[in-house]
Please model this.
Amino acid sequence: MNSAEATPPLVRFDHVSCSYGNGPVIENVDLTVARGEFVGIVGPSGSGKTTLLRAMLGSVKPVHGSVMWSPSLRVAYVPQLETLDWNFPVTVSEVVAMGRPQRSWWPRLQPSEKSEIQRVLEHLGLAGLWSRHIRELSGGQQQRVFLARALIQKPDLLVLDEPTAGVDVRTRHEVLHVLADLNELHPDRGDGESGIAIVLTTHDLNGLAAHLPRLICLNRNVVADGSPSEVLKPYFLERTYGAPMEVLQHGGMPVVLEQGGDELRLRLSRRGA
Ligand code: ADP
Ligand code: MG
Model:
């Protein structure tokens, strides 16, 4: 296998089931995330993706099985933007400051904290937006502000829920480039070994998932776990989404097509005629 086997994982799920009271929403999930990995979790709405992330953060406790973290692991979370309350009146710097590991008397910032926030904002191309209200930003900028809030926690593992939901193609590229950069080797990070491990969920099979080194198909349990070419196959996709899908190869990459599109197009064109 990969280097995942050589060093202890950052996170390990052993037969994990989670429930909100009415039966399990994820069941018997086994997985590990190794240092420096980049993992995408795909599955239909309600398949348990967010719950799996919450279990990874420790904010949802398994009803069966166990989640183990490597000692002193720092995990940071970027929530799904649609789930946030945008009426909360905060500026860019205030949102980022909320991520400070040792928060004292908020919102007063030490000079060192200010320069750290400034550094992260600059790194993410948000330098001029310090006092801007988060509601006045584009979707991609908002996404990067929450990424900045996660990054000042200096995580070993970054967990993002649907980071490209509702953004346009260019913004999706931007977000992915930033994430790929964070995931790459960072000799100046002190450990000298690896970049930040990333786990994200996505609905975007072709625009995002197919480009990642490792994918997990989730539908309450793990249907498949491997590289996109191992996982994006009609058999696994149908078991994940409950609908038939076709997979083409384009430039050595799998491209997933929904079946039934032709029939729909025909019916609509007949109706228009
Ligand atoms: P996904 O992120 O893949 O859409 P979720 O993990 O959010 O899936 O949800 C999985 C299932 O758990 C869904 O049926 C959802 O309705 C239910 N669920 C999620 N959060 C809660 C909650 N806080 N209380 C009760 N049920 C929940
Ligand atoms: Mg979700």
The chain has a mean pLDDT of 87. Residues 102 and 202 are 31 Å apart (CA to CA). The helical segments are 49-57, 92-97, 111-123, 139-151, 169-183, 228-231, 234-241, 261-272.
